[in-house]
Automatic annotation (TrEMBL), chain A:
Keywords: Cell cycle, Cell division, Cell projection, Centromere, Chromosome, Cilium, Coiled coil, Cytoplasm, Cytoskeleton, GTP-binding, Kinetochore, Mitosis, Nucleotide-binding. GO terms for biological process: cell division. It holds the Pfam family Septin. GO terms for molecular function: GTP binding. The gene is LOC115056289. PANTHER family: SEPTIN. It is found in: Chromosome, Centromere, Kinetochore; Cleavage furrow; Cytoplasm, Cytoskeleton, Cilium axoneme; Cytoplasm, Cytoskeleton, Spindle. It comes from the Eukaryota. This is Septin. Its main location: nucleus. GO terms for cellular component: axoneme; cleavage furrow; kinetochore; midbody; septin complex; spindle. It comes from Echeneis naucrates (Live sharksucker). The lineage of its organism: Eukaryota, Metazoa, Chordata, Craniata, Vertebrata. Gene3D superfamilies: P-loop containing nucleotide triphosphate hydrolases.
From TrEMBL, chain B:
It comes from Echeneis naucrates. SUPFAM superfamilies: P-loop containing nucleoside triphosphate hydrolases (SSF52540). This is Neuronal-specific septin-3. One of its GO terms (molecular function) is GTP binding. Belongs to the TRAFAC class TrmE-Era-EngA-EngB-Septin-like GTPase superfamily. Septin GTPase family. Residues 31-303 form the Septin-type G domain. Its main location: cytoplasm.
Amino acid sequence: ILDRASINRMRVSVCVSLKQRNLEGYVGFANLPNQVYRKSVKRGFEFTLMVVGESGLGKSTLINSLFLTDLYSKDYPGPSQRIKKTVQVEQSKVLIKEGGVQLTLTIVDTPGFGDAVDNSNCWQPVINYIDSKCEDFLNAESRVNRRSMPDNRVHCCLYFIAPSGHGLKPLDIEFMKRLHDKVNVIPLIAKADTLTPEECQLFKKQIMKEIQEHKIKIYEFPDTEDDDDNKLIRKIKEKMPLAVVGSNVVIEVNGKKVRGRQYPWGVAEVENGEHCDFTVLRNMLIRTHMQDLKDVTNNVHYENYRSKKLAAVTCNGVDTSKTKGQLTKSPLAQMEEERREHVMKMKKMEAEMEQVFEMKVKEKKQKLKDSEAELERRHEQMKRNLEAQYKELEEKRRVFEEEKANWEAQQRILEQQKLDASKTMEKNKKKGKIF
Amino acid sequence: NSHNSSGGSTLLGYIGIDTIIEQMRKKTMKTGFDFNIMVVGHSGLGKSTLVNTLFKSHVSRKSAGWARDEKIPKTVEIKAVSHVIEEGGVKMKLTVVDTPGFGDQINNDNCWEPISKYINEQYEKFLKEEVNITRKKRIPDTRVHCCIYFISPTGHFLRQLDTEFMKRLSHSVNIIPVIAKADTMTLEERQEFKQRVRKELEVSGIEFYPQKEFDEDMEDKSDNDKIREAMPFAVVGSDKEYQVNGKRVLGRKTAWGIVEVENPNHCEFAQLRDFLIRSHLQDLKEVTHNIHYETYRAKRLNENGGLRDEPALPLTLYRLLF
């Protein structure tokens, strides 16, 4: 796992091995920084800022004050105006132009954080969001065509601490512990006009003590070679965590127009260094350390994510007893092997499928044959039945004919007898035997 | 008087019935009285400071020796601290019940249960004493007369925990919601927040003290209506004194001004104090005794047809008494 200290050491060692040579004439590469500057100005900058904290801590107001825009206005009320049942992660993009420089600012808000009665795992949606942005960047980096690579990774996470005056809450500690190695965490004391200067000092000390106790790594300002800059940085470090107040309302104080909050007992000025640390935050976040935040995100947090993710991929699908040596395998060779495996798997699947297909065809054929035979059999049987019936009928007809002949014969005999009888009667009549 | 149907009878001379008020006063001064107040709210809302400011002395748990930066307990604890304070010859035994750990955990489910249990335990203690055959002359009253619930000044809405707690406990104790650390909000923000909170309380059916149903007559009703309109009070507490316009006042000193705690233009602490102590202290005790305690008693006696450990009286006599 890389961290800032190891990177600094790497930088230093490289510089020592090169000897500085003196030039005999003016070459002109001193102009390089200007060229870089001009190119970046043309390209424009991106910055993603995440704000996390319970509702009602002034996150939306602070964002509006920092960037002097109405990201959340009356027409588009921010997430604070809606009650949420679960933690959501919402992002809003705004394009800010100043002095020819273009900044695409993405603000990621987390409404619902810490607002429920049971807040276990309310940090999970936040972690999922950060990881998904890193994954998008990883995929974009690994693609073949890398022309446009938008950087949506979260560069900085402002964590708002409620101004209780006592110390950190269990939720604060849990959240920062889980996120300090995924993103730059900058803790802020919200609504700092609640605290008197002494209370603020005590509170800050208490928070820093607890942060050290729990080994939370908040964003650290890098040391520079310039002594004056270092003095400033040390002063800022003493003020951590920064106690901020936000306001977009302009009030007139002693003839001057200032941003502030009007109370019956005075006006709390947002940009007054003695009232709160808002100017320190703004200068640090935008004017001096924006690039450093992006660098640390890229070099430290993103690299941690990347190595963890890729190590997990190489361990997948390989026998666990062999994993000891596999971690050092080059990803390209691993990819080749995977491809070969994949192709083999496909071939095997194809063969299997063919087998199955053949089997099915055979089955079907057999079935058809069987039913054909069955049909034939039945056909034969029916024919035989019919013949038998036909024979029977013939037999019956013969019998019937016989009977008919008999009966006709009998009828004829009867007729003959009748005739005979009538003949004899007539004879008898004639003979006078019947009277 | 039986032969007078309209109003009281006209006296033929000065009898002195009105001195009974003086007699009561003298008695009260001698015996003194108990008052138990509970403060509920998650840590950092200024509960202990407010109690100190209300009674103008260091009576909170924090002042009784607990350190300022003690760790947040893992479960809700109930810590009661008692002091006897005296003013104008009247002695008051004030007990402040604090509830550290409420609403501070990551998972705050059922964090109201220890509090509910404590309140019911006090009613149970009183009931047992009352039912005893040989009763003490003055039953020690540890029942919670008033529960001040501190609402976090987010400026947006009530939290889920707030409504859950108040819903469950408004029927067993007098709840007075206050908006804590009101110096976080400007006057307009305070008004908007108050409106929203009051609407939410109405919608959730939460009856905070003074409850509408217990107004005894028209005078009470109009007084209490005014108070109900102004609740929840937005308060600021402080036990430090500063010099403002030649006077010493309690306040908080910021870089842009001094917040005066007792200045009605700055916050509503003075209103809360007058309401709580100067006008409704006795009423709080009465409502607790006549209504909340009686509800508890009726429920308990109906539950098992009697108390579990019945006194050794003949059954008929016992039934007669209760």
